[in-house]
Automatic annotation (TrEMBL):
UniProt keyword Flavoprotein, yes or no: yes
Family: Belongs to the acyl-CoA dehydrogenase family.
Acyl-CoA dehydrogenase/oxidase N-terminal domain boundaries: 6-118
Record domain Acyl-CoA dehydrogenase/oxidase C-terminal: where: 227-385
Keywords, in A-Z order: FAD, Flavoprotein, Oxidoreductase
Keyword Magnesium: no
Name of protein: Acyl-CoA dehydrogenase
Gene3D superfamilies: Acyl-CoA dehydrogenase/oxidase, N-terminal domain, Butyryl-CoA Dehydrogenase, subunit A, domain 2, Butyryl-CoA Dehydrogenase, subunit A, domain 3
InterPro entries reported for this sequence: Acyl-CoA_Oxase/DH_mid-dom_sf (IPR046373), AcylCo_DH-like_C (IPR036250), AcylCo_DH/oxidase_C (IPR009075), AcylCoA_DH/ox_N (IPR013786), AcylCoA_DH/ox_N_sf (IPR037069), AcylCoA_DH/oxidase_NM_dom_sf (IPR009100)
Co-factor requirement: FAD
Length: 390
């Protein structure tokens, strides 16, 4: 595959970079970290109602811009560069793909229009325990009348405490594995829904525990039935992992850029340390790794775009899983490496609160574990190669 940015792609990238350089600079990031919801509502309003980023991938018939996942990946890379604290990732990379691949036109109309308007923050809650496999889902949907009663909990829901829309996964009583999984869409303030913010290593992204106590769900709120629920949930998580890989790539690039700016000013032995051959080698290695991660992320974004297309091929599941795993492995490891190298090459000030490398280091370590760590994705790739995939 030959991939190159079009003029439209470059315009999206450059305009996003200019906006975030002002709205999410170091001072703004640190201010957002101190807020209970982890983001500045004024910045989020501008993102949703002036820049229309949540609407980017929403089809035009629902009031969106009708663009693809590659364009969203460009935005995610820029948001990763500037450690943007906002519900953008949860809304655009988790909730929106689930709605797009769902099978309830009325829910799509209701919620995709709300997301496109910039007024709705959304997320996906799926796992009760750590993991991405179907067995990590333990919430149960008991049939009751024309609907269901859902009880259980979800761990580490991204922006779960501030979400206006919750897409939840729950399984039929007595079901196991990939069988009997439903997807429902309900307001974040629905009776019986309790969101508890969690303390996290990465203060630039908020996580929450979601508890459901006898939550009443109607048939009109069912996004996918048990015959399609796992396929939609699985592909949604893979697409979100690709979006996260693009974000991690942006973070890695910024960690490198911060390092290059610092070593160009720091002087030892009457010259800048950027002139030292050993420093040059380390920076060159970082650049090579970032480019490899970027290539993997955008290849995976192209596969995700094919899956999300209106006439998309649902049979690309295997290619999507391999592409997502490859992108997440490269991006996770490269981001952590670049963030660690940035601290090292900043010397004695690298780990201090006043400098930014520690913010990228924390984001790198936290996002490495999110939506599957490299070891888990390597197991998936090995399973495909050895013919032992579930």
């Amino acid at each position: 595959m030959e991939f190159a940015f079009t003029e439209e792609h470059l315009m999206i990238r450059d305009s996003a970079g200019r906006f975030l350089a002002q709205a999410s600079d170091s001072h703004a990031v640190r201010a957002a970290m101190m807020r209970p919801d982890g983001h500045d509502p004024d910045v989020w309003q501008r993102i949703g109602q002036e820049l229309f980023w949540p609407a980017l991938m929403v089809p035009e018939r629902f009031g969106g811009m009708g663009l693809g996942f590659v364009e969203l990946a460009i935005l995610m890379e820029q948001s990763g560069r500037f450690l943007l604290g906002s519900p953008l990732f949860a809304t655009a990379c988790l909730a929106t793909p689930a709605l797009l691949m769902g099978h309830n036109e009325a829910l799509q109309t209701q919620w995709l229009e709300a997301i496109a308007s910039g007024n709705t923050r959304a997320t996906l809650a799926f796992a009760s325990v750590a993991g991405l496999e179907a067995d990590s889902l333990q919430a149960v949907a008991e049939p009751q009348g024309d609907g269901w009663t859902v009880s259980g909990h979800y761990a580490q829901v991204i922006d779960g405490a501030c979400a206006d829309l919750l897409i939840i996964a729950a399984r039929a009583p007595g079901s196991h594995g990939a069988q009997g999984i439903h997807l429902f869409a309900l307001p974040g303030t629905a009776p019986g829904v309790i969101a508890t913010p969690l303390p996290t290593l990465d203060q630039t992204r908020r996580l929450a525990r979601i508890d459901l106590h006898q939550v009443q769900v109607s048939a009109a709120q069912q996004l996918c039935g048990p015959d399609q629920g796992w396929a939609v949930l699985r592909d949604t998580l893979l697409i979100a992992a690709i979006g996260l890989a693009a974000e991690q790539t942006g973070g890695a690039q910024q960690a490198l850029d911060l390092t290059l700016a610092y070593i160009a000013e720091r002087r030892q032995f009457k010259r800048t340390i950027a002139s030292f051959q050993a420093i040059k080698h380390r920076c060159a290695d970082m650049m090579l790794y970032v480019e490899c991660a970027r290539s993997a992320a955008y290849y995976a974004a192209c596969v995700a775009q094919e899956r999300l297309a209106p006439d998309g091929d649902a049979n690309v599941a295997k290619e999507l899983e391999l592409a997502a795993a490859t992108a997440k492995i490269h991006a996770s490891e490269v981001f952590f490496l670049c963030a660690a190298e940035s601290i090292q090459l900043h010397g004695g000030v690298g780990f201090t609160w006043e400098y930014d490398p520690h913010l990228y280091f924390k984001r790198a370590r936290a996002s490495e574990q999110m939506l599957g760590n490299p070891a888990l994705h390597r197991e998936r790739i090995a399973g495909h190669l050895l013919g032992d995939s579930a």
